[in-house]
Structures are given as C-alpha cells and as structure tokens.
Structure prediction request, 507 residues.
Amino acid sequence: MTEVSSDGGPNAQYAKFLAEGRFMIQRGKNSGKAVFYPRAYAPGTGEELEWVEASGKGTVYSTTVVRKKPPTPDYNIALIELEEGPRLTSRVEGVEAADVKIGMAVNAQIIDGEEGPLLVFIPAGD
Amino acid sequence: MTKFPRGKTAIVGAALFGGRGAPGYDPDEIAGIAARDALFDAGLTPADVDGLFVTHSNDAFGGGLQLAQYLGIEPIVADNSRTGGNVFQSYLERAAWLLDAGLINVALITYGSNQASATGKLTSSRKPFAYEAPYKPLNPITSYALAAARHMHEFGTTKEQLGHVAIAARSWAALNPDAANREQLSMDEYMGARIICDPLGKLDCCLVTDGGGAIVMTRMDRAKDLRSKPVSVLGATSRTTHDQIMGMPDLTTTGLAECGKRAFTDAGLGPNDIDVLELYDAFTINTILFLEDLGFCPKGEGGRFVEDGRIAVGGSLPVNTNGGGLSCMHPGMYGLFTIIEAVRQLRGECGDRQVNGAKTALAQGNGGLLSSQAVAIMAVD
Prediction:
C-alpha cells in the first residue's frame, strides 16, 4: 500500500524544491527514465520514482509568440525538451520573443513569477 | 476482440439549428430543438430514444440529465463524456456497439451552444494546468501554433500552404447558404491578417458561432423502415494521446494515425475509397495534420498536398464541403457538424456544394489540444 508522505504529494514537493531555488525532476528507481511533470509513479509502468536535480539543460522543441496589442509587449511560449528527455511548457527570456528558434540550446533559471517561483529558460550562449 | 458492427447500424435523422446565430436561446434549448428536428427527420419522437449522448457549450456536473428531462425521456444510457470536439464521433462509435449489442434501440446524439451570443468568445470550462498556466498560453491557439511551428520546422510547411487550407474552406462556404463567411478569400488577404500566435493568425482560426445539431441512430433492420435514407456506419474509432500540448508524444502526429487505420480496417476501405472528407478544422494546421494522419498523403506532405487547390471546390478531394469550422460555423465543439455534413452529402441534400455521386464519407473529430481523436466512416448504397 502507498503511504501518505508528510511532505505532501509530488506536486507540493516540487513546489517546495522550486521555492528553495532547486529545479528537481523525477526518475524511475530501476529504469532511470526521467519524468516531468511530478507524479506519484512513472506514467505507463507505475514504477517508483525518486527526485534528482535536473541538469537544467534543454533544447527548444517548439516556440510561438503571443502577439498583444501595444503597449502590452508580445511574449514567448516554448516547449523545452530537457536533456533528460521530458518536454515541458515554459518561456525563453533574455532574447526577443520572435528570436527564439527551434533547436536553440537553453538553460533553466528560476525567477520570481507573478504567483511565486517560476521556471524559465535563457539561451545557453556559445 | 469482437469486430466493429460494420453496416449494422445507421444514421437515420440529422438536423442543425441556430448556426447563423441563436440569441436568446440557451444551450439545452438549442440541443433540444436540433434533437426534436432530427427525430422528426427520421419519423421518430423523443419517446423512442433510449440512448442519450449529449454535451453542450457550458456543460457541468450532471450534464445531460437536464436534456433528458427537457425531452421528457428516461434513457437507459445517458452519456455525457466531454473529451472535446471529437466526442460526437466517440458517441457514434459507442452507440453503434450498444445498438448492435441490443442494449439500446434508438440513440440520440446532440449538442447545443450559444457561445457567440452569450460571450462572443470560445467557451471552455477547461481547468488551468499548473505546469502551463503561469506562462499564459492563449489556448487553444497557442498549442496549435506550437504544433504548426514544429510542422514547419520538420517538413518545410509554409504559411502560404496554411493559407491554401483557409482559401479552400472559403471556396466551399461560398456555395453553402448556411455558412457564416461566404466571400472568397485571397492569398493577399490571408497573408495580411493579424498574427495572434506565430505562425497562426486570425484567418487560421475557426469562427466563433452559436449552433446546435443532432443525429439519430438505430439498427439497420429498423432503419430501412424509417422515413429518411439510412446512412450506414461502416467504422468508428477513437484514441486519446494527451491533455496539454506538452504531453503530446510527437507534435506532428496525432492519435488519428492509429485510430484512422483501425477505422479504415473496420470499414474495409482505404483513403482512396472516400468520396467526401469532413475534417475538424479548428485551425488551418489541423487539416494538414489530419490529411497526413488519415493517410490521404504521406507524413510531412500535407502542406504540398493542399497547395494546388486539391481540397477546394473543383479539386480532386472534396474536404470540408460546408466551409468547415474556418468558414461555415464553429460553436465550440465541432465534431457533430462534420458528421451532419457527411450525412447530408451522402443523402444528396447539399445543393450547389453537392459532391456528385457521393457514396462514402469520413467525418473526423478532434478534441482538446490535438488530444483526443475520433473517426466515423459512413456510406450509402
């Protein structure tokens, strides 16, 4: 039987890590296969998971610019493929929204978002 | 697994209501009126219905029960699944199995929406997802834009090719008196339209309209005694691959690649056998993805496939003959309207836009953010 954790469920645990400035993902205890977003077990197999520090390295898998009416600035939304495998929704900062390109190497950064710590990505540079 | 009851059930009634606008009506009224008209079309009444399959634009817990009460019926199957706009093909699939098994005798599938009159916007009761909402996606368009951008990257699909999808849809709408936008669309006008989420602009997006529809199904033996020409159901399948776009296994391949094949196998047909194709074109990229996934062209070739007017009026493959969600109507969940247009084409009721001699049709449904897919293949003798 699965025990209740005093740290709360995987979503709460992830949020706590993020608040500590740590980008953590999960991986299968046996398979080592990485999982994101946080889950109580591996999707498909039900395998037990453990938390690991993400490398923070990723690649832009797809990208779009949400066009707003001036003076509201346009903004980027991107799908990032993490080095470990999983894909997630985020945005790329530090570059014009329209200059974010598929295949671009990016690094994770935790910023103060409107509703708490937020995971974003910045271009990895050369 | 038991084989799909090919040709054992039929669509015997179909009706539309309020697609050009139904201000002052609520969704249950719109669904209810379409339901009664579809039943009368078949020569049946509400009292004949024992399987009710319904959702509408502002559905909530207990959805479907209100419509049963409205119709004054006590259905033994009341299905209010809400996977998205594909659910009507899935309802049809389930109804075919349940009818063939003998659990129900008459299935009513219906939908109503007053979203244009009520809000002027696409209505959705979808809950925000914690790992996506903080980035402020303008969904659904952001997710479809991400799929379109990836398709362009992998296969060289161009903005002009997306434009050909919009222009083709408008060419059909011009022939349909029930379509909302009937003026021919030029490539210049398309290319000049405001971009909302790159690469998708205003003319890559479906309309926001009111509207309801209903179809009625029964077993083929009974269908032959009813008033309308029965449209035989040869195959119907569904597949769900993800919820948010970040969970989509491959942004350029939908669940149709699997369930489309299964539906063709059930039907004993292939893409070349289909006379009329009705696709869920909520966005221009959809038509390209679905043509590929259903096998009408190889993966990655969808953009080039639509380029020469092939799916427009006068082209070799009639697609979205009512004008589609892009130019005819889109009341929020469009899947039922692809089925109804297919039925009307197979019955030969389509006037100026009638595809001559249409004997087979495929009506596809798409739900969520390319998340849930379903297909129905139909035919007449």
Summary: The mean pLDDT of chain A is 96. Residues 8 and 14 of chain A are 10 Å apart (CA to CA). The beta strands of chain A are 24-28, 34-35, 49-53, 57-66, 75-82, 87-90, 105-113, 116-123. The interface with chain B takes residues 11, 37, 61-67, 75, 77, 79, 87-91, 98, 102-103, 113-115, 118 of chain A (CB under 8 Å).
